[in-house]
Amino acid sequence: MTASPYRPMLLRLDSSARTEGSHSRQLADQIEAHWRARHPDGRVQRRDLATEAPPHIDAQTIAGFYTPPEQLSPALRAATARSDASIAELKVATTLLIASPMYNFSVPSPLKAWIDQVVRAGHTFTLEGGRPRGLVERPSAVLALTYGLPGYGDQLATLDHLRPYLQSVLNFIGIRDIQVVSTEGTAADPAQLAGIPAAVKERIDSLFSEPVTT
Ligand SMILES: Cc1cc2nc3c(=O)[nH]c(=O)nc-3n(C[C@H](O)[C@H](O)[C@H](O)COP(=O)(O)O)c2cc1C
């Protein structure tokens, strides 16, 4: 592995509506602590998408996305300012940590709102002869996912629109090194609130050594 010329930066996104007793936040805390231990010189930027939700993109935002920069009016510039800032933050990160519970088989809506702000033609992806190419080259990603029901690796696999969706959309914008840490059955087993299962802890301990491309 070649040394990164960049100061390590972890961009952590939380999205559970619960700020107390949240399994996904607990997982992300462990992953962040492990990352900090591996990167003592690193910087952590946290964004709590649940308590400070990104605005939904609207007609003005979309008009701004498709207007050449030199033609942006002050109103369109304002409508795309949040997208500009979120993309800039994503592009300077060396690790992106997304903590997400499954809500109705997919991501919580504030996380979807963040995705809608950052997946943007000419900024995070481009089309070359009709083929998409991602423009976000720097961060690797870790997904900390929690599922209320057990069985998404098995009988509920077709209902998992959380992990495959996040992997696809991150791949689309160029992030290919993605690792997943997940727990299932959190709704059925309140005892899990007492702590993170040993197998998941082992998985966390294995992170940030070698890149894995999905
Ligand atoms: C609004 C809502 C929708 C949910 N939808 C699902 C679901 O579709 N499938 C599932 O397995 N669990 C579902 N759950 C359970 C959560 O995924 C589970 O409790 C998870 O641990 C919540 O994350 P948190 O502990 O970080 O808050 C849902 C929970 C809530 C609050």
From TrEMBL:
Its EC number is 1.6.5.-, 1.7.1.17. Keywords: Flavoprotein, FMN, NAD, Oxidoreductase. Its cofactor is FMN. Binds 1 FMN per subunit. FMN binds at S16, S22, H23, S24, M102, Y103, N104, F105. Transmembrane segments: none annotated. Residues 10-202 form the Flavodoxin-like fold domain. It comes from the Bacteria. It catalyses: N,N-dimethyl-1,4-phenylenediamine + anthranilate + 2 NAD(+) = 2-(4-dimethylaminophenyl)diazenylbenzoate + 2 NADH + 2 H(+); 2 a quinone + NADH + H(+) = 2 a 1,4-benzosemiquinone + NAD(+). Belongs to the azoreductase type 1 family. Also exhibits azoreductase activity. Catalyzes the reductive cleavage of the azo bond in aromatic azo compounds to the corresponding amines. Quinone reductase that provides resistance to thiol-specific stress caused by electrophilic quinones. Homodimer. This is FMN dependent NADH:quinone oxidoreductase. It comes from Ottowia flava.
